[in-house]
Design brief:
Organism: Armatimonas rosea
Number of strands: 15
Structural class: alpha/beta
InterPro entries: P-loop_NTPase, Sig_transdc_resp-reg_C-effctor, TPR-like_helical_dom_sf, TPR_rpt, WH-like_DNA-bd_sf
Strand order of the largest sheet: 9-10-11-8-12
CATH architecture of one domain: Orthogonal Bundle
GO molecular function: DNA binding
Mean pLDDT: 86
Distance between the termini: 48 Å
Largest sheet: 5 strands, parallel
Protein name: Putative ATPase
CATH class of one domain: Mainly Alpha
Low-confidence stretches: 174-196, 877-882
Radius of gyration: 34 Å
Helix content: 55-70%
Length: 882
């Protein structure tokens, strides 16, 4: 999607592509836009902006108008489908426009700066002409903010000065034209046009990259654009302005770089030293040296160093797959295209192969997935698009398992190494040392990111750190903080080079490593370090999935162990569908392979809650009963055989957990009496065993039963009785959670009390518990509980008649519930005294439909930090006070 372009000269307008907004909704909206557009990327204090635009009214009233104006502006600049905060940046303290937007005032001043630093009359005149073309009239006419008035006068003075300077250059320009026409042909040979012209096909995205490279060139004399083959390094450089370009793809000796430059510049013969001659031709220039990687080992970096020492004013952009490792080098790793730009590039190239192809709602998800699977690599996207002459996007996607055979193109205007994806990677591969090549193929067993320790353990390589550095420097591996990551395309390339025997060895080592990790992390889930445990699992999740998929057929017993070790992490990260898929496949493979009955029962025990979460109660009951009956039978057998109580302890704990899971199933089937019986039996068992972690879950289940009974009844006295019982279990459960540092369950218990206490006449106790529950659930990323807490805060806003905040909280709550497929609990009818348990307000009616929609969408797309700030603005009263 194109960036917004804001025009302030001669009026206040906003353009993006064919869309033009020249009648912004309200004078204040235009004033706010004009004020912020003067300095994109700069965040102004909200209070300062409010004082500038509404100086004549009460501050509280001005602040409300500011919020309304900001919402209207956001709706115009960030319509549905636009990432929130990508154009208009705002938080509780500051507001501003993103630095990526374009503003005529900024471009005008930049052109004047270039004119001031230009070294000749012709360049100076060109920049002045650009500036004057942008100045279409005074700044923001019709707007009379003090800040705009002073800036209007300053810019008008600059424009007048530019006109005078441009007129004064006319005599010098005429002389320059005359002199140029009299140049001898030999002299003209020193004028060097770029070796390659800008390609005719369209270029997509990379605006941030272009801006960043220009910025780096201001601060550094040598910038290396680093990336694997096919990332679009050459094409990016060709989009930069004022760059001289030299392709080095045919040069094999880096020590001959200076000679190659003399030849490219077509310098006349001379007795002067080569560097002296180059200095005269390249002083003050910016030169791009393309395809440098093959020169790194043959004296290329030394030649670059000598060139820059001889020409202090020369700036170099180098594109390479390998770092030069010079002290003056500033590396710029080039990432693949972002999803939106990758899709745009693919569609553009696909239309060349098949002119009737268009992106539709029907094929958009397939094209997006295809571009993702191709890692957003421009070369891979272009080669895939070339196949559109005979294949559909879905057919290409189906064939990506053979991507290196599929992605080839015999166009005559391509370099040989860019005619196929394999050829592009072969070139970089040939530059790696054999031992580094072998180490890379072993790393391809990883999926997603991995640590140094994982690489050392699985490969068994003593020089792993050195090899990792070599692969990063050669663009075969990306450093991601303290971890490393492979592009999927490069991973597939390396896996092709593994022998079946080596692949089997690595699969076993990889699975055993991550199984050990899961077992090491499990204790973190039942103590005060649950956040660390969840974070560790999330980093390893792709590798755990890869290990499961590979071992399902190779070693069902190992796959079973992995599945059972991963299941607690799937539960706390709400990975329901993923858990169900892997558990189901593993159970089928393990059953067929004759895995031990106890392991099969454990898989059944995991599948019961997984199906329950998805609302399939009958299937959940089948699996839960399979596990429960097996463990009951085993306990009887071992008890009869005289096993010690210590030996029976793990089995008793498992049975108590099965009882709790059966209680959950009965609760969702609204068989409340039976559910209570199971929870109580489990509670007594866990109390006897001293297992506080599972005891907390028993209290959670008992709380749910009695709270639900209270919500469902319409008898006021019965409702109170049930709520009192629920509150009792909530308090007991909270105490156990705190004692056992069981933070995940504690979130639930705190939220439950925040709902119930006000209904029991103790509203003053509710708010601190709500705040604690919200903060804790946010820290744990327990999103269903976060959504429940937002519901409470929404009620608080409604009761305080803070309608705008309530609308935003409604949007935020809905977004979380849609994303995590969770619901808001019981919608209880009023009791026989007409009392509701939830407040209600018709917000669209109170705010107006348009205003409500804008606020609702703002909340729907709000970040977690924004929601925390919004909650902090609410009055410090219980959300349930009457």
């Amino acid at each position: 999607m194109e960036n917004w372009h804001f025009e302030l000269f001669g009026g206040v307008r906003a353009r993006r592509g064919s869309l033009v907004l020249d009648e912004l909704a309200g004078r204040k909206t235009g004033a706010l836009l004009a004020l912020l557009a003067l300095a994109p990327g700069r965040l102004r204090p909200r209070e300062e902006v409010i004082d500038l635009i509404w100086p004549e009214i009460d501050f509280d009233d001005a602040r409300n108008r500011f919020k309304q104006t900001l919402a209207v502006l956001r709706k115009q600049l960030e319509p549905a489908g636009t990432a929130p905060g990508s154009v208009l940046i705002a938080d509780r303290l500051q507001v501003g426009l993103a630095s990526s937007v374009q503003v005529d005032v900024v471009a005008f001043q930049e052109a004047l700066r270039r004119a001031a630093s230009a070294k000749d009359s012709l360049a100076q005149a060109g920049h002045l002409d650009s500036a004057l073309a942008l100045y279409q009239g005074e700044l923001a006419p019709g707007f009379y903010l003090d800040a705009l008035l002073s800036e209007r006068e300053r810019l008008a003075a600059l424009a007048e000065s530019a006109r005078e300077r441009r007129q004064a250059l006319e005599p010098a320009l005429l002389l320059s034209v005359f002199t140029e026409s009299r140049k001898e042909e030999g002299q003209a040979q020193t004028e060097w046009a770029p070796v390659l012209q800008r390609p005719l096909n369209a270029f997509f995205g990379r605006q941030w990259e272009k801006d960043e490279i220009v910025r780096l060139l201001r601060e550094h004399r040598l910038v290396t654009i680093l990336g694997p083959g096919g990332t679009g390094k050459t094409r990016l450089v060709q989009e930069l302005e004022g760059i001289r370009f030299l392709s080095l793809s045919s040069l094999r000796e880096g020590s001959r770089l200076h000679e190659a430059l003399v030849a490219a510049l077509e310098l006349p013969p001379s007795d002067e030293a080569t560097l002296v001659r180059l200095r005269a031709a390249l002083e003050g220039q910016t030169l791009a040296l393309d395809n440098f990687e093959q020169l790194v080992a043959t004296g290329g970096p030394e030649a670059v160093d000598a060139l820059q020492r001889a020409i202090p004013t020369l700036r170099l952009i180098v594109t390479s797959r390998i770092k030069l490792n010079l002290a003056a080098e500033q590396v710029f790793p080039l990432s693949p295209l972002v999803a939106e730009d990758a899709v745009a590039l693919f569609c553009d190239r696909a239309q060349r192969a098949r002119p009737d192809f268009t992106l539709t709602d029907k094929n958009k998800s397939i094209v997006t997935d295809l571009c993702r699977r191709l890692d957003g690599l421009p070369l891979a996207l272009e080669l895939a698009a070339a196949r559109m002459a005979i294949l559909t996007p879905a057919q290409i996607l189906e064939r990506l398992s053979r991507r290196f055979d599929l992605l080839a193109d015999k166009r005559r205007d391509r370099e040989a190494r860019h005619t196929s994806l394999r050829a592009a990677l072969d070139w970089g591969w040939s530059l790696l040392a054999p031992d580094v090549q072998y180490f890379f193929t072993q790393l391809c067993i990883f999926r997603g990111s991995f640590s140094v320790e994982a690489a050392e353990t699985i490969t068994g390589e003593l020089l792993a750190i050195d090899y990792l550095q070599a692969l990063v420097d050669s663009s075969f591996l990306r450093a991601d903080g303290e971890r490393f990551r492979l592009l999927e395309t490069l991973r597939e390339y390396g896996l092709e080079r593994l022998s079946p025997l080596e692949s089997a060895r690595l699969t076993q080592a990889h699975a055993e490593f991550f199984l050990a990790c899961l077992k090491d992390w499990q204790p973190l889930l039942t103590g005060g370090q649950i956040t660390q445990g969840i974070q560790s699992f999330k980093q390893a999740q792709d590798n755990v999935s890869a290990a499961l998929e590979r071992t399902l057929s190779l070693s069902p017993a190992l796959a079973t162990a992995l599945c059972l070790a991963a299941n607690p992490f799937w539960k706390v990260t709400y990975s329901r569908q993923l858990a169900l898929a892997y558990l189901t496949q593993t159970l089928a493979q393990a059953t067929a392979a004759g895995v031990a009955e106890g392991e099969l029962a454990a898989l059944h025990g995991c599948l019961g809650p997984a199906y329950l979460d998805l609302g399939d109660y009958s299937t959940a009951r089948f699996h839960q009963q399979q596990s429960y009956e097996y463990n009951r039978r085993l306990l009887e057998e071992r008890t009869t055989a005289g096993a010690s109580e210590a030996a029976l302890l793990p089995l008793r704990e498992t049975i108590a957990e099965e009882l709790n899971n059966l209680g959950n199933l009965l609760y969702f089937e609204t068989r409340f009496d039976e559910a209570v019986a199971h929870y109580e039996e489990a509670r007594l068992c866990n109390q006897a065993l001293g297992n506080d972690v599972r005891l907390a879950r028993n209290y959670s289940g008992l709380f749910c039963v009695f709270a639900s009974r209270g919500h469902l009844t319409t008898n006021a006295q019965e409702r109170r009785t049930y709520f009192e019982q629920a509150q009792h279990f909530a308090e007991e459960g909270t105490a156990v959670c705190r004692r056992a540092q069981q933070d995940f369950t504690l979130c639930f218990m705190l939220r439950g009390q925040a709902f119930l206490l006000p209904l029991l006449g103790e509203p003053e106790r509710a708010l601190p518990l709500l705040h604690e529950g919200f903060a804790l659930s946010c820290a744990l990323e327990n999103w269903p509980i976060v959504a429940d807490c937002l519901t409470c805060y929404c009620h608080q806003a409604i009761r305080g008649e803070h309608w705008e905040e309530a609308a935003q909280l409604q949007g935020a709550e809905t977004a979380l519930r849609e994303q995590w497929n969770t619901h808001a609990g019981w919608e209880a009818p009023p009791d026989d005294e007409g009392v509701h348990t939830r407040p209600f307000a018709n917000l669209p009616e109170r705010l107006g439909q348009e205003r409500y929609e804008a606020l609702y969408q703002a909340g729907f797309h709000a970040s977690l930090d924004s929601l925390k700030a919004l909650v902090a603005t609410l009055p410090h009263a219980s959300p349930f006070e009457k």
